[in-house]
Structures are given as C-alpha cells and as structure tokens.
Amino acid sequence: MIAPPKPPPLDELEALIKEARERQLRRRLLGTAGIAIAAAVGLSVYAFVKGGGVNNVAPARAGRASGPLCRASQLSISAGLQGATQSLAGGATITNTGGGSCSLPRLRPVVRISLDGETLRIRQRPFPYRMSHGPLAHVLVPGGQAVIFIQWWNWCGRTGAAAMTVRLGRGLNLPAPQRLGEPTCIATGPSSSILYVSPTFASNS
Questions:
Q1: Cβ atoms within 10 A of the Cβ of 53, count?
Q2: Within a domain: residue 4?
C-alpha cells in the first residue's frame, strides 16, 4: 500500500498562499490599469472630437464610394495630440474644402511623424481600442469631414517640433500644419515607439 503524500510544512504552505495572493493582486492591478488607460484614451479622443471642430458640419457619406478620388488640393487637415497615461492621444481631422464630392482611398491611413525633415522610427499598429464613432468615411461631400484617431506611445529620441503627415492610399499625402509634442520615454531600444492609427471615420455631427 502506497502511503499518502505528506502535506507541505506550514512555513512552505504559508509561502505558497502568499505567492498566490500576490499573483492575484498583480492581475487586479493590471486589469485596473488597463481600464484606466482605456478610459483616459476615450476621454482624450472625446475631447479631440468635441474640440477639434468636427461637430455641426456636413458629415461624410458612408457606403459605396463614388466620384473622383480626392486630391490634396481639395483637402485640408488639422491634427492634435494630448497627454494620456504617458502617451499622446488625439487624431487628425480631414475636411473637403473643394466644390464637389470626392472619394477617399479605402486603405488604412499611414501616419508619419518627422522632426526637422527626418522621419522618426515609429512602428504603426491598428488602433487597439474598440471604436464606436460611426461608419467609415468613403465619400466626402463639400464641407464634409472625416476623422482618424491616433495614439503615440513611448519616445526616447531627440525632441523638438515634430510634424505629422497623413498618407491616404498610395499617393495622397496631407501634412498637418500643427506641431506636436512627444510621449513619455518608457523603454529604449530600436523601433520601441508605437503609433496606433484607426481607420478613417465619417464625423458624426
């Protein structure tokens, strides 16, 4: 007959219980931090949408794209990023300033951030948070606007008046006139900075 295993000593059992409690506490703290980050980003995006002039305008039409492709000469862009949980969050607003409707490229926008003409090494990723800001923008009527949400994490390089350029499709480049700050340096290393970029949404007035 095989003897049952001996229970661990009391001090070892207490150590195991303590370790389990510490793991549970770390999981709770990480969950709370994630909720706080999502809330901060949501507030920053909300402030950008409300303060960036995307209300009370002719909305972009959603649905099947029609009309000629938009040209840079008939579009204007404004950008703004604000501090949120050690990152910069906000976005860019695109306005059709021409006299006719035009269609936007369906590819995900590419955002380039440069300093003194030199493009910074930043990895771009799809926006990680669930977006609920209306349909995607396919066609902009005259005066219509579309918005792209952006969050920039971790920058440890040189600082200065960084500039943002949004590329739509394969050749439609829109440089924003505004200058940006930089997010907090969290971790060094090549290409450790990350830029989250959403699709192009129709502004919901």
A1: 14
A2: no
Rounded-to-integer distance, Cα 32 and Cα 29, Å: 5
Query: Model confidence over 173-186: pLDDT tens digits?
Result: 999 999 988 899 98
Q: CB 28: neighbour CB atoms within 10 A? A: 10
Range of the domain at 104: 34-202
Nearest partner of 91 among 185, 194, 184, 176, judged by Cα: 176
| Gap between the Cα atoms of 80 and 90, Å rounded | 6
Enter the DSSP assignment of 197: E
Residue 76, both tokens: 């204007």
Predicted TM-score (pTM) of the model is 0.69
The helix or strand, by DSSP H or E, that contains position 116, with its residue range, turns out to be none
Residue 83's pLDDT band, with cuts at 50, 70 and 90, is: confident
Q: 67 in the Ramachandran plot: left (φ > 0), alpha (ψ -120 to 50) or beta? A: left
Domain count, the chain: 1
Question: CA 88 to CA 189: how far, in whole Å?
Answer: 19
Is residue 113 in some structural domain? Answer: yes
Token couple for 55: 């209300």
Amino acid at 85: T
The tens digit of pLDDT for each residue in 4-61 reads 555 545 555 455 555 655 555 444 433 444 444 444 444 445 445 445 433 333 344 4
Let me know if residue 22 belongs to a domain. Answer: no
Q: Is residue 3 part of a domain?
A: no
- How confident is the model at residue 63, as a pLDDT? 41
